[in-house]
Amino acid sequence: MNVATPLIAFEQVGKHFGGHRGDRPVLAVADVSLNIASGEFLAIVGASGSGKTTLLRLANRLLVPDHGTIRIEGVDISTADPVALRRRIGTVFQNGGLFPHMTVAGNIGITPRLLGWNQHDIAVRVEELMTLVQLDPGAHRDRFPHELSGGQRQRVGVARALAARPHIVLMDEPFGALDPLTRDALGKDYHSLHRDLGLTTVMITHDMAEAIMLADRIAVMSEGRLIAQGSATDLARSGSGEVQALLQTPRRQAAQLQQLLPQDDNS
Question: pLDDT above 70 covers what percent of the chain?
Fold first, then answer.
Protein backbone atom coordinates (compact mmCIF):
# COMPACT_ATOMS: atom_id res chain seq x y z
CA MET A 1 0.00 0.00 0.00
CA ASN A 2 1.29 3.43 -0.91
CA VAL A 3 -0.41 6.16 1.12
CA ALA A 4 1.65 8.74 -0.81
CA THR A 5 -0.72 8.13 -3.74
CA PRO A 6 -4.02 7.67 -1.92
CA LEU A 7 -7.21 6.31 -3.40
CA ILE A 8 -9.20 8.51 -0.97
CA ALA A 9 -7.83 11.78 0.39
CA PHE A 10 -9.41 14.15 2.93
CA GLU A 11 -7.65 17.53 2.85
CA GLN A 12 -8.41 19.93 5.73
CA VAL A 13 -12.08 18.90 5.72
CA GLY A 14 -14.48 20.60 8.13
CA LYS A 15 -18.20 20.27 8.82
CA HIS A 16 -20.62 22.03 11.20
CA PHE A 17 -24.30 21.41 11.84
CA GLY A 18 -26.84 24.07 12.78
CA GLY A 19 -26.22 27.77 13.02
CA HIS A 20 -28.94 28.66 10.51
CA ARG A 21 -31.48 30.27 12.87
CA GLY A 22 -29.19 31.98 15.31
CA ASP A 23 -28.41 28.78 17.23
CA ARG A 24 -24.79 27.96 17.86
CA PRO A 25 -23.28 25.68 15.20
CA VAL A 26 -22.05 22.29 16.37
CA LEU A 27 -18.62 21.22 15.20
CA ALA A 28 -18.74 17.70 13.71
CA VAL A 29 -15.46 17.45 11.76
CA ALA A 30 -12.54 19.83 12.31
CA ASP A 31 -9.89 20.22 9.60
CA VAL A 32 -9.33 16.50 9.09
CA SER A 33 -6.63 15.38 6.68
CA LEU A 34 -6.45 11.64 6.06
CA ASN A 35 -5.12 9.51 3.21
CA ILE A 36 -6.39 6.00 2.47
CA ALA A 37 -4.41 3.77 0.13
CA SER A 38 -5.80 1.49 -2.55
CA GLY A 39 -6.36 -1.95 -1.04
CA GLU A 40 -6.24 -0.69 2.54
CA PHE A 41 -8.66 -1.64 5.32
CA LEU A 42 -9.01 1.44 7.53
CA ALA A 43 -11.06 1.48 10.72
CA ILE A 44 -12.17 4.82 12.18
CA VAL A 45 -12.88 4.63 15.91
CA GLY A 46 -14.00 7.05 18.57
CA ALA A 47 -16.69 7.73 21.12
CA SER A 48 -20.23 8.66 20.13
CA GLY A 49 -20.23 12.20 18.74
CA SER A 50 -16.56 12.08 17.75
CA GLY A 51 -17.38 12.80 14.08
CA LYS A 52 -16.51 9.42 12.60
CA THR A 53 -19.88 8.80 10.91
CA THR A 54 -19.99 12.36 9.59
CA LEU A 55 -16.56 11.84 8.02
CA LEU A 56 -17.78 8.67 6.31
CA ARG A 57 -20.88 10.39 4.93
CA LEU A 58 -18.76 13.20 3.53
CA ALA A 59 -16.86 10.62 1.44
CA ASN A 60 -19.85 9.77 -0.75
CA ARG A 61 -21.53 13.21 -0.66
CA LEU A 62 -24.37 12.23 1.64
CA LEU A 63 -23.06 15.36 3.38
CA VAL A 64 -21.18 18.31 1.90
CA PRO A 65 -18.19 19.77 3.79
CA ASP A 66 -18.11 23.42 4.84
CA HIS A 67 -14.50 23.61 3.69
CA GLY A 68 -11.68 21.40 2.52
CA THR A 69 -11.40 18.92 -0.32
CA ILE A 70 -12.14 15.21 -0.67
CA ARG A 71 -10.55 13.40 -3.59
CA ILE A 72 -11.24 9.90 -4.88
CA GLU A 73 -8.75 8.58 -7.42
CA GLY A 74 -7.34 12.11 -7.53
CA VAL A 75 -10.65 13.74 -8.50
CA ASP A 76 -12.34 16.34 -6.31
CA ILE A 77 -15.72 14.74 -5.53
CA SER A 78 -17.41 18.17 -5.35
CA THR A 79 -17.25 18.11 -9.16
CA ALA A 80 -18.86 14.64 -9.38
CA ASP A 81 -22.55 13.85 -9.72
CA PRO A 82 -23.48 12.64 -6.21
CA VAL A 83 -25.82 9.88 -7.43
CA ALA A 84 -23.24 8.51 -9.87
CA LEU A 85 -20.59 8.71 -7.13
CA ARG A 86 -22.68 6.68 -4.67
CA ARG A 87 -23.45 4.04 -7.27
CA ARG A 88 -19.76 3.29 -7.72
CA ILE A 89 -19.04 3.15 -3.98
CA GLY A 90 -20.41 0.25 -1.96
CA THR A 91 -22.01 1.17 1.37
CA VAL A 92 -22.96 -1.16 4.22
CA PHE A 93 -25.21 0.27 6.93
CA GLN A 94 -25.86 -0.92 10.46
CA ASN A 95 -28.77 -3.41 10.47
CA GLY A 96 -28.34 -3.88 6.72
CA GLY A 97 -30.42 -0.88 5.64
CA LEU A 98 -32.38 -3.12 3.26
CA PHE A 99 -35.53 -2.06 1.41
CA PRO A 100 -38.29 -3.91 3.31
CA HIS A 101 -40.61 -4.20 0.29
CA MET A 102 -37.95 -5.89 -1.88
CA THR A 103 -36.82 -9.48 -1.85
CA VAL A 104 -33.23 -10.46 -1.18
CA ALA A 105 -32.63 -10.66 -4.93
CA GLY A 106 -34.27 -7.27 -5.47
CA ASN A 107 -32.14 -5.66 -2.77
CA ILE A 108 -28.88 -7.08 -4.09
CA GLY A 109 -29.71 -6.23 -7.68
CA ILE A 110 -30.95 -2.67 -7.14
CA THR A 111 -27.73 -0.81 -8.05
CA PRO A 112 -27.00 -2.87 -11.21
CA ARG A 113 -30.64 -2.32 -12.24
CA LEU A 114 -30.29 1.45 -11.76
CA LEU A 115 -27.08 1.32 -13.79
CA GLY A 116 -28.95 -0.28 -16.68
CA TRP A 117 -27.71 -3.87 -16.48
CA ASN A 118 -29.88 -6.41 -18.30
CA GLN A 119 -31.98 -8.86 -16.29
CA HIS A 120 -29.83 -11.88 -17.11
CA ASP A 121 -26.62 -10.23 -15.92
CA ILE A 122 -28.35 -9.02 -12.74
CA ALA A 123 -29.65 -12.52 -11.98
CA VAL A 124 -26.20 -14.04 -12.53
CA ARG A 125 -24.60 -11.40 -10.30
CA VAL A 126 -27.19 -11.92 -7.54
CA GLU A 127 -26.57 -15.67 -7.52
CA GLU A 128 -22.80 -15.15 -7.54
CA LEU A 129 -22.91 -12.71 -4.62
CA MET A 130 -25.30 -14.77 -2.51
CA THR A 131 -22.91 -17.67 -2.82
CA LEU A 132 -19.99 -15.37 -2.03
CA VAL A 133 -21.57 -14.17 1.25
CA GLN A 134 -22.63 -17.73 2.12
CA LEU A 135 -26.39 -17.48 1.60
CA ASP A 136 -28.06 -20.31 -0.30
CA PRO A 137 -29.67 -18.62 -3.35
CA GLY A 138 -32.42 -21.22 -3.63
CA ALA A 139 -33.45 -20.83 -0.01
CA HIS A 140 -33.09 -17.06 0.37
CA ARG A 141 -33.42 -15.34 -3.04
CA ASP A 142 -37.16 -14.69 -2.74
CA ARG A 143 -37.32 -13.94 0.98
CA PHE A 144 -38.01 -10.48 2.36
CA PRO A 145 -35.78 -8.77 4.95
CA HIS A 146 -38.21 -9.43 7.83
CA GLU A 147 -37.88 -13.16 7.13
CA LEU A 148 -34.10 -13.10 7.73
CA SER A 149 -31.97 -13.17 10.87
CA GLY A 150 -29.81 -10.16 11.72
CA GLY A 151 -26.70 -11.88 10.41
CA GLN A 152 -28.44 -12.84 7.17
CA ARG A 153 -29.60 -9.25 6.65
CA GLN A 154 -26.04 -8.02 7.07
CA ARG A 155 -24.80 -10.61 4.56
CA VAL A 156 -27.39 -9.31 2.10
CA GLY A 157 -26.21 -5.77 2.88
CA VAL A 158 -22.63 -6.74 2.05
CA ALA A 159 -23.74 -8.45 -1.16
CA ARG A 160 -25.73 -5.36 -2.20
CA ALA A 161 -22.70 -3.14 -1.56
CA LEU A 162 -20.58 -5.35 -3.82
CA ALA A 163 -23.16 -5.77 -6.59
CA ALA A 164 -21.80 -3.19 -9.04
CA ARG A 165 -18.19 -4.30 -8.46
CA PRO A 166 -17.00 -1.19 -6.57
CA HIS A 167 -13.38 -0.67 -5.61
CA ILE A 168 -14.38 1.20 -2.42
CA VAL A 169 -16.67 -0.01 0.37
CA LEU A 170 -17.80 2.26 3.23
CA MET A 171 -19.14 0.51 6.34
CA ASP A 172 -20.98 2.28 9.18
CA GLU A 173 -20.99 0.09 12.31
CA PRO A 174 -21.80 -2.91 10.09
CA PHE A 175 -21.62 -5.60 12.75
CA GLY A 176 -22.51 -3.66 15.90
CA ALA A 177 -26.09 -4.94 16.29
CA LEU A 178 -25.21 -8.62 15.87
CA ASP A 179 -24.72 -11.25 18.55
CA PRO A 180 -21.04 -11.97 19.35
CA LEU A 181 -20.75 -15.25 17.42
CA THR A 182 -22.41 -13.86 14.28
CA ARG A 183 -20.40 -10.65 14.55
CA ASP A 184 -17.11 -12.54 14.76
CA ALA A 185 -17.98 -14.85 11.86
CA LEU A 186 -19.22 -12.07 9.57
CA GLY A 187 -16.24 -9.87 10.38
CA LYS A 188 -13.85 -12.64 9.38
CA ASP A 189 -15.84 -13.42 6.24
CA TYR A 190 -15.86 -9.77 5.15
CA HIS A 191 -12.13 -9.46 5.81
CA SER A 192 -11.56 -12.39 3.46
CA LEU A 193 -13.75 -10.73 0.80
CA HIS A 194 -11.85 -7.46 1.23
CA ARG A 195 -8.57 -9.27 0.62
CA ASP A 196 -9.72 -11.59 -2.16
CA LEU A 197 -11.55 -8.89 -4.14
CA GLY A 198 -8.85 -6.24 -3.68
CA LEU A 199 -11.23 -3.77 -2.04
CA THR A 200 -10.49 -0.54 -0.24
CA THR A 201 -12.58 -0.53 2.94
CA VAL A 202 -13.32 2.25 5.40
CA MET A 203 -15.18 0.96 8.47
CA ILE A 204 -16.66 2.97 11.32
CA THR A 205 -16.72 1.15 14.65
CA HIS A 206 -16.80 2.02 18.34
CA ASP A 207 -15.16 -1.33 19.15
CA MET A 208 -11.38 -1.03 19.36
CA ALA A 209 -10.94 -4.82 19.52
CA GLU A 210 -12.84 -5.19 16.25
CA ALA A 211 -10.73 -2.46 14.67
CA ILE A 212 -7.49 -4.12 15.77
CA MET A 213 -8.53 -7.54 14.49
CA LEU A 214 -9.84 -6.44 11.09
CA ALA A 215 -8.05 -3.27 9.97
CA ASP A 216 -4.61 -2.60 8.52
CA ARG A 217 -4.65 0.87 10.09
CA ILE A 218 -6.79 2.65 12.67
CA ALA A 219 -7.73 6.34 12.75
CA VAL A 220 -8.91 7.69 16.11
CA MET A 221 -11.29 10.66 16.26
CA SER A 222 -12.29 12.83 19.19
CA GLU A 223 -14.57 15.89 19.15
CA GLY A 224 -14.34 16.08 15.37
CA ARG A 225 -10.57 15.88 15.23
CA LEU A 226 -8.24 13.14 14.05
CA ILE A 227 -6.02 12.62 17.09
CA ALA A 228 -4.04 9.52 16.10
CA GLN A 229 -3.61 7.01 13.29
CA GLY A 230 -1.53 3.94 12.62
CA SER A 231 -1.30 0.26 13.39
CA ALA A 232 -2.24 -1.15 16.80
CA THR A 233 1.47 -1.04 17.67
CA ASP A 234 1.67 2.62 16.66
CA LEU A 235 -1.36 3.48 18.79
CA ALA A 236 0.07 1.61 21.77
CA ARG A 237 3.00 4.05 21.66
CA SER A 238 0.74 7.10 21.47
CA GLY A 239 1.02 9.67 24.22
CA SER A 240 -2.70 10.48 23.98
CA GLY A 241 -4.66 9.60 27.10
CA GLU A 242 -7.81 9.13 25.02
CA VAL A 243 -6.11 6.65 22.69
CA GLN A 244 -4.75 4.73 25.66
CA ALA A 245 -8.23 4.64 27.21
CA LEU A 246 -9.63 3.14 24.00
CA LEU A 247 -6.90 0.50 24.00
CA GLN A 248 -7.43 -0.30 27.66
CA THR A 249 -10.85 -1.93 27.15
CA PRO A 250 -9.69 -4.87 24.98
CA ARG A 251 -6.61 -5.24 27.21
CA ARG A 252 -8.76 -5.38 30.34
CA GLN A 253 -11.21 -7.83 28.73
CA ALA A 254 -8.36 -10.09 27.62
CA ALA A 255 -6.87 -10.08 31.13
CA GLN A 256 -10.24 -10.85 32.73
CA LEU A 257 -10.92 -13.70 30.31
CA GLN A 258 -7.48 -15.12 31.01
CA GLN A 259 -8.37 -15.26 34.69
CA LEU A 260 -11.95 -16.50 34.32
CA LEU A 261 -11.64 -19.12 31.60
CA PRO A 262 -10.19 -22.54 32.45
CA GLN A 263 -6.78 -23.22 30.95
CA ASP A 264 -6.46 -25.85 28.22
CA ASP A 265 -5.05 -29.11 29.53
CA ASN A 266 -2.96 -30.61 26.76
CA SER A 267 -1.32 -33.18 28.99
Answer: 96
- 41's CB contacts (< 8 A; 6+ apart) are 191, 194, 200, 201, 203, 214, 215, 216, 217
pLDDT of residue 2: 44
Could you tell me where the DSSP H helices lie in the chain?
A: 52-59, 82-87, 104-114, 119-132, 137-140, 150-162, 180-197, 208-214, 232-236, 241-260
- Which element (helix H / strand E) includes 90? strand 89-92
Strand order in the sheet with 200-204: 89-92, 168-172, 200-204, 41-45, 217-222, 225-230
CB atoms within 10 A of CB 34: 20
CB distance 215 to 55 below 8 Å:
no
pLDDT at 267 over 70: no
Q: What is the pLDDT of residue 266?
A: 61
* pLDDT tens, position by position, 23-55: 788 999 999 999 999 999 999 999 889 999 999
As a residue count, the chain comes to: 267
The pTM (predicted TM-score) of the whole model is 0.90
Q: Determine the pLDDT at residue 199.
A: 97
Contact at 8 Å (CB) between 141 and 130? yes
Q: Which residues contact 188 (CB under 8 A, 6 or more apart)?
A: none
CB 17 within 8 A of CB 10: no
Pairwise CA distance, residues 59 & 166, whole Å: 14
Distance, in Å, from the CA atom of 36 to the CA atom of 39, rounded to the nearest integer, reads: 9
In angstroms, the CA 12 to CA 8 distance is 13
The enclosing H or E element of 22 equals none
Decide if pLDDT at 180 tops 90: no
